Amino acid sequence: MSGVEVAGIIVAVFWAILISFLAVALARLAQVLKATTKLVADVTDQAVPLLADASTTVRSARTQLDRVDAIASDVQEVTSNASALSSTVATAFGGPLVKVAAFGYGVRKALGKGDAAASGGMPPKTSRRNVIVGRTVPPARRRKQKG
């Protein structure tokens, strides 16, 4: 055997080993692709019912939001009606009631039947007490001045 024949055999063995490694790598790659295909199929089988449930939930939420929108518009209408009613009542009765109250106050002052008029223009003294949740605390004692 010559050197060229030995080199040819070495190259042939090298190529055989290389092809074997490539065949094993391709076989593993095929297994990975099969597992991936199965996984994608399983995910698809599970995702379809989940998407259907999500779609149902979104429809239900939309229906509820439509109801809330209707309620909110009704509340807004009631609020505007109440505001209009209160302004009407204030306009109709507010002015005359203020005038009657002022007239009554003036009459009391003129006749001198007020508390302030009886005590010389000063309001009556009241004892001042501090209240602490269910207890009455007496006012501070004053020092008697000698003199």
Q: Can you give a write-up of this model?
A:
- The chain is mostly helical.
- A two-stranded antiparallel sheet has the order 1-2.
- The longest helix is centred in the middle third of the chain and has 109 residues, at 3-111.
- The termini are far apart.
- The protein is elongated.
- The chain has helices at 3-111, 115-118; strands spanning 130-132, 135-137.
Which helices and strands occur, and which strands form pairs?
Elements: H1 3-111, H2 115-118, E1 130-132, E2 135-137
Determine the mean pLDDT: 83
Q: Unreliable stretches, pLDDT < 50, 5 or more residues?
A: none
Q: Which shape, going by the Cα principal axes?
A: elongated
Spatial gap, N to C terminus = 146 Å
Determine the structural class based on helices, strands and strand pairing.
mainly alpha
* Residues in helices, as a percent range: over 70%
Biggest sheet statistics: 2 strands, antiparallel
Proportion of residues in β-strands: under 5%
What is the alpha-carbon Rg in Å?
Answer: 49 Å
Order of helices and strands: HHEE
Query: With helices defined by DSSP (H or I, 4 residues minimum), what is the helix count?
Result: 2
Oligomer: single chain
The strand line-up of the biggest sheet is 1-2
Extended strand count: 2
